[in-house]
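Minutes, project check-in
Item: structure for the 136-residue chain
Input as provided by the requester:
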Amino acid sequence: MIEWDRTHDFEIHRVFVEQTEATVHFAANTPSIAEIVAMRQLVPHYSTMPPATLREFFGESGWHTLGEMNGYEVRVFERKASKLGLHVTIKNTSYVHSYPFDKTTGRSWIIEDPDELIAVVESMIAAGIPISIIEG
């Protein structure tokens, strides 16, 4: 485990990141023309793509994930998709991230190995280092 300088003033920054993944489910393996038209209305970037290109882009899986959104965005997206006749599922992909912050140097520690990061944070918490909640 990485050793930390106990003479420095540390705190643990804990960030709660709210995000959601939205997936559109098509009625069949490939989207219908009506579903392609709806997707073009739903996602501005898709409106410039020809329908044949979109059909090829969506493939034959029967669904298309539109990526991560925050809670407000996904609720607006879901309402709009529903009005367009699309079936959307929402998956909560929120997470909490904790990392050491060295107040003495004014720098956050970036520890890329997740197991190492957990070990360092847990050892700091066990040593009484305070936790500061950061809005994500």
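Outcome recorded: The CA atoms of residues 92 and 120 lie 27 Å apart.
No further action items on this chain.
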